[in-house]
Amino acid sequence: MTTGCLSVLIVLTAVLGLVVSWLWYRHWHDGNVNSERREQALASVLEQAHATADDTERALDTSGTTDADALTGVIWQHSKAPVIAYDASRREFTATAAISAQYEEEVMLPGGGPVQVTRCFVFTYTQRPGRAWTSKVSERDDDACRPSTQIGSRVRLALTRISSMYAEDMTRAGVQNALDPTERRSFDVKNVVRERDMMTVSVLVSSSGAAVDQCYRFTRFLRGDGGQRPATAVPVSSC
């Protein structure tokens, strides 16, 4: 082997070593950065869950009401939990919701960007006779939130469809057909009431297999010409 070839080989070996070292360092660095950012995102999720419980507890204490639907509305306002169950015998509400946070993932190659971490929580709000409301936060596995997530998605779909309906079509049968045209039994319209320029629709919204269901009250103000207007939705204790 000539001196020139040997020199070239040494240079190539050195360059290859530098490249391998750089790649190893980037892998180690990105892994550490992503791990730290993920932990920060998870800490943010836990902080959000406990802040939600505390804010809701205070709101329940100051609500001044004993009506189950009104209290359900208070919990919904602060937690946006798609499923809120009420146990009258225990005077206890249980809200199930997934909470998410994002972090930016570091990668060497294209394909990085925002990554979402999600955790499932069950919030329990209880009031004993003569006492203030108390709250408890429990983290559960993803399966516990799957029905709640499905119901939340179906409520958003129902809002879109109810908002697009004309007033003259908003009968019980008309709304039922609009929400569940293929009869999958995800929606069961219980009642439709019109009072002046406001339409109220009570619907039992179910997850797949009817494993979990939640009553919702959809409200839509009507225009004078009966045209389309946005609707709102809030969970209620019963239909």
List the helices and strands and how they pair.
Layout: H1 3-63, H2 68-79, E1 83-87, E2 92-105, E3 113-127, E4 133-140, H3 142-163, H4 172-179, E5 187-195, E6 198-206, E7 213-221, E8 231-236
Antiparallel strand pairs: 1-2, 2-3, 3-4, 5-6, 6-7, 7-8
Helix pairs in contact: 1-2
Question: What does this molecule look like?
Answer:
It is a single chain. The longest helix has 61 residues, at 3-63. Helix 1 runs antiparallel to helix 2. The chain is built from 4 helices and 8 strands, in the order H-H-E-E-E-E-H-H-E-E-E-E. The model has no long low-confidence stretch (mean pLDDT 85). Helices cover 43% and strands 31% of the residues. 23% of the residues are buried. By secondary structure, it is α+β, with helices and mostly antiparallel strands. The chain is globular, with a radius of gyration of 27 Å. The strands form 2 sheets. The protein has a 4-stranded antiparallel beta sheet with strand order 1-2-3-4. The chain has a 4-stranded antiparallel beta sheet with strand order 5-6-7-8.
